[in-house]
Model the fold of this input.
Amino acid sequence: MTKIVGKEQFSELVTLLEIDAPRIARQRKPGHFVIVKIGREGERIPLTISMADPEKGTISLVIQKVGVTSHKVTALNPGDELTDVVGPLGHATHIEKLGTILCAGGGVGIAPMLPIVQAMKEAGNRVISVLAARTKDLIILEEQVRAHSDEVIIMTDDGSYGQKGLVTQGMEEVIKREPVNQAITIGPAIMMKYAAALTKKYNLPTVASLNTIMVDGTGMCGACRVSVGGKTKFVCVDGPEFDAHEVDFDELLMRLGAYQDEERADYERYLKTIQ
Amino acid sequence: MTDFATYLKEERDQEWREELRKQIKNKERTSFERVKMPEQKPDIRNRNNLEVNQGLTEEQAVKEAQRCIDCPNPTCITGCPVNINIPKFVKKIEGGDFLGAAKVLKETNGLPAVCGRVCPQEVQCESQCFYTQKLKKPAVAIGNLERFAADYERNSGSISIPETDKPNGIKVAVIGSGPGGLAAAGDLAKYGYDVTVFEALHEIGGVLKYGIPEFRLPNEIVDVEIEILRKMGVKFIKNFVVGKTASLEDLKDEGFQAFFVASGAGLPRFMNIPGENYVGIFSSNEYLTRMNLMGAAKEEYDTPVLKGRNVAVIGGGNTAMDSVRTAKRLGADRAMIIYRRSLQEMPARVEEIHHAQEEGIEFLNLTNPLEYFADNKGRVNRMRVQKMELGEPDSSGRRRPVPLEGSEYDIDVDLVVVSVGVSPNPLIPEAVKGLDVTKWGTINVDPESMMSNIPGLFAGGDIVRGGATVILAMGDGRKAAAGMHKYIKHSIQKN
Ligand SMILES: Cc1cc2nc3c(=O)[nH]c(=O)nc-3n(C[C@H](O)[C@H](O)[C@H](O)COP(=O)(O)OP(=O)(O)OC[C@H]3O[C@@H](n4cnc5c(N)ncnc54)[C@H](O)[C@@H]3O)c2cc1C
Ligand SMILES: Cc1cc2nc3c(=O)[nH]c(=O)nc-3n(C[C@H](O)[C@H](O)[C@H](O)COP(=O)(O)OP(=O)(O)OC[C@H]3O[C@@H](n4cnc5c(N)ncnc54)[C@H](O)[C@@H]3O)c2cc1C
Ligand code: SF4
Ligand code: SF4
Ligand code: FES
Done:
């Protein structure tokens, strides 16, 4: 059992939970994630470690409500417990001084982006962050990202905040304006697909952090498999970060949709039970 | 005479054994038919998840035990990787001392209720029985009797907790809670160590929990055994991936003096043929984990699993049989095994193949998948296969399957489970610098002590053998526990 010690509501859909996990807080590096399960009958879902406080022994997760499990998790309050938390899992982000880094985070992808922004800045890079979301409410952690970026560009689909437009427009603006050494993109698969297509046009090396469906997160099941450079990789143990220009995003999108019908039905049923 | 042979002889010479031997003539014993295990009817059990085998009654067990002629040279024991004193426990059953029989089993095997159910007896103990070897008759049903005694003890409410030596306060760690880890933990506790078992998943039991289905091995049985280990003082820490949550060095700093790695062969293999990543194509690990560990078929559990009407399972091992029979139980109209060799070469337990056939599983043997096709949403809907024939034997001694040109044809499928083997779990080999690992990724150990090239780091089970069996993993666990005991005593003396 893992205790929740803090909670912050970023928007209707996005919540930060600070949880008591001293060992994970000590071991984790940017890019790592945990698997969380709630209740005996619960599902195992992966969530990136957004922040950690090794002294206090806590980690922070930023969760967007999309279905049954994320809904249950975001409904927890300080004092409540998560049944199972395991991690840190996956490979840490490769942090190096490269020059200028373009960090493009979409929606809840901004949360896992934050520790990378922070570490890239600390390594001595110039960091430009592009934060994108459907609407103003879904732009999260702006202040924290600003604190570690040389520049922040905000894009919203509906123009309710920052510039109106897609993440790729914000990225292109920077690429056209100044030399960039590496791009990193985290967000919905469809956003990463277009971000990768853009940077490929400019021959800009790009890393994408993939968010496949997972079960165990330890390399045992293959639910998270994805084709990278024509080879099958397991996102939980080989990733989650890969060369974005090699990832088969269409396959990733297809596999993410595997349980769509079941999940939507489950979620509707669940929402009825809690009304 | 070796110690072991002397021990067997002394046991055999005991009065009660002699008495029993005299009661029925050997000629009569060998004329008895092997008692048939009561089973659920095929057309009923393929729609439920209850155990197929229902266990022998007391009368049936005694009757079967009477078949054993209590050989002066019990060859059956040589077929058992943990050298259970088979005639001794069988004769206890014949004499009606069922609890006594269970005690004999526990001398060398911590999980008899599990082994009695899942050991491939026909290639182990029963293959070496006098009946098989000399009489060419069905062997004494050693596995069924083992299960009977263990179940009897569990249901009696007077299950015995093995005695442990005085706690010596020395901390040792077991990594992985499958049969290998559990066996080692039991023995280490008996030696008096302060044992902690670390498990990556949220349940204890390894493959016994996430792999083997309820209809062959109910989880409850595994839980009872784990509870006994707890009572012996073993601590279990779940959700802890050694190498990630903490490194081996961290654990050493926390006082652990020796480690037993039983992290299994958990990495599923795929065939790397076109279309294998379509939706609806699973590894058997994923399929069985969703069902067994995550409860996907049960209404109150959140984890989903795709259902199929036409299900193809690729492979011929126990894992393939478990997957295909699970698919049938989930309501598949057609549940098929697609295997590239013939029925003779199938590595699955004979009993499981037989049960699968009775349950209406189709066997497409000498058939190999070539490619998968999908609908416009990416869900698999068809597969192309090719017929094979058997050629010359390969390095494993099995006849190599050779494709028959021009024999390709398509089968409608909406769910595919790929069950073509597993590779060793790479987590520990990746996390321990300098560890001696083979090119297949298994850990190299000294076969006597089970110690790797890293002092104090022992390993056994599937991480050493590749995919093997429950009882071999347990045998390794026991050997390693002895090896660790020796190692620690020795290093204490040195200091
Ligand atoms: C390495 C990794 C890190 C992640 N980090 C975070 C994080 O920090 N914060 C966060 O909110 N989410 C994160 N995710 C995504 C998160 O795991 C999913 O949103 C969650 O599993 C959904 O579970 P659910 O039961 O609530 O919804 P479900 O009912 O399972 O799904 C609802 C809908 O979401 C889609 N979906 C399901 N799984 C995923 C997924 N893995 N990614 C994207 N969409 C999915 C489905 O297609 C479905 O339509 C991460 C995923 C991975 C693989
Ligand atoms: C579906 C299926 C059916 C089978 N049927 C039979 C059968 O009928 N008869 C038979 O004899 N054999 C059968 N087998 C094979 C048998 O189950 C295995 O040989 C046996 O379980 C191996 O035991 P083990 O202790 O080595 O590892 P496992 O049982 O594989 O357990 C390893 C455990 O270690 C954990 N782990 C891994 N890495 C770490 C880490 N770094 N930190 C913490 N924990 C870790 C894993 O999560 C896992 O729980 C079957 C296997 C499968 C998959
Ligand atoms: S443990 Fe397995 S091999 Fe040994 S006697 Fe029992 S069933 Fe036979
Ligand atoms: S070989 Fe067969 S008959 Fe002989 S002791 Fe063993 S089980 Fe009994
Ligand atoms: S989540 Fe199971 S292998 Fe990656």
In short: Chain A has a mean pLDDT of 92. Residues B 80, 82, 84, 86, 109, 115-116, 119, 121, 124-125, 142-143, 146, 471 surround iron/sulfur cluster (ligand 3) (CB under 6 Å).
